[in-house]
Amino acid sequence: MLEELTSLQSFYEKARTLVSADVFSFIDGGSLDELAVKRNRQHLNDIRLVPRVLRGLGEISAQTQIFGHNLSTPVLIAPSAYHGLLSPKGELDMLEAANQFNTIMILSMFASVDHILVAQNKKGPLWLQMYFLQDRSINKNFIQMAQDNHFDALVVTVDAPVYAKKERECAQPLKFPDNTSFAHLERLGIPINQCLKTKKHLSTLLDHQISWDDLDWLAQETQLPIILKGILDPRDTEIALGYPNVKGIIISNHGGRQLDSSCTAVEIMKEHKQVVGDKVKLFLDGGIARGSDVFKALALGADATLIGRAALWALAAGGSKGVFHALSILQRELIETMILCGCASTKDITSDFIKL
């Protein structure tokens, strides 16, 4: 069956026939008019490639290195909540695919499966995502759990001081199966069951007063490498460089799920690269659906990309094998684009190959 799925779009179409309407709306929807969701794809489509010919290419490799780890392809799995809505084993299926494909999965703070169990099954680098919550003691518990279970980095989402209005979700609220257990979240102090009953989801938990001072607090709590997720303004990237424990920045508009009229990572990435140089790793998140999109992101200055919804649709369509198949499609498309453009390795990909 999976062989019939030949693109990430085909996984989307397949998943739509398999998941419930409320789950589909929860994952697929963006905030307000979903303008940012549409622009994420459009801005990637608008970039044109300028290939070189007669380059005498030898062996072709899509491998890249992130924090000393060799990855098969510069595509990471973005953090997203509640994988158990799409697959019986949830995040364990996603991790199995990441392990087999040799890439990095970023595990969500709001995972369906116990974070400790997921960590016990990792065979390579595994990062953990975190929001700043109003109750900072929960963050302390979460960070301690991350350290005790040998997570390799902490991804701190900074673009969600509130949970933005999503009209599709309002019209079709997310429902969890009766047997859903969030005991692992409650154990960390997250009152998730009470939160879900209020139908306000994360809004009752998120801290809208977060500031750069919270990164100073974080530096006192952990020596784990920090990756900031959700920066768009290059001025914020410049500030982030002043924090020694910040080792990476994910340029992202949260998949169009937060500020609807925000710019896209694609249109702002080159400015971030000018600020950063090679001081920290840069990641592009939002709209990646083709291997050629990955090529474009690297040409803009990203060290790697993230896929979010695409990985979830693959999980729904085929569990761990579905995710592995989707990642393999991206890898093959990236290698094909590299050959057509005259690049033997990801290090050869520069801004010379794109026209904006």
Roughly how many Å apart are the termini? 38 Å
- Uncertain parts: none
What is the assigned CATH homologous superfamily?
A: Aldolase class I
- The appropriate CATH architecture is Alpha-Beta Barrel
Spatial strand sequence of the major β-sheet: 4-11-10-9-8-7-6-5
Q: What is the count of structural domains?
A: 1
Q: With helices defined by DSSP (H or I, 4 residues minimum), what is the helix count? A: 14
> How many whole angstroms does the radius of gyration measure?
19 Å
SS class: alpha/beta
Helix content: 40-55%
> Beta-strand percentage?
5-15%
Order of helices and strands: HHHEEEEHEHEHEHHHHEHEHEHEHE
- Report the CATH C-level class: Alpha Beta
CATH topology: TIM Barrel
Question: How many strand units?
Answer: 12
Mean pLDDT: 96
Backbone shape: globular
The main pleated sheet reads as: 8 strands, parallel
Please characterize this protein's 3D structure:
The protein is α/β, with parallel strands linked by helices and 356 residues long. The chain has a single domain, classed as Aldolase class I (TIM Barrel, Alpha-Beta Barrel), CATH 3.20.20.70. The protein is built from 14 helices and twelve strands. The strands form three sheets. It has an eight-stranded parallel β-sheet. Strand 8, helix 11 and strand 9 form a beta-alpha-beta unit. The longest helix is centred in the C-terminal third of the chain and has 33 residues. It is globular. The relative contact order is 0.21. The mean pLDDT is 96.
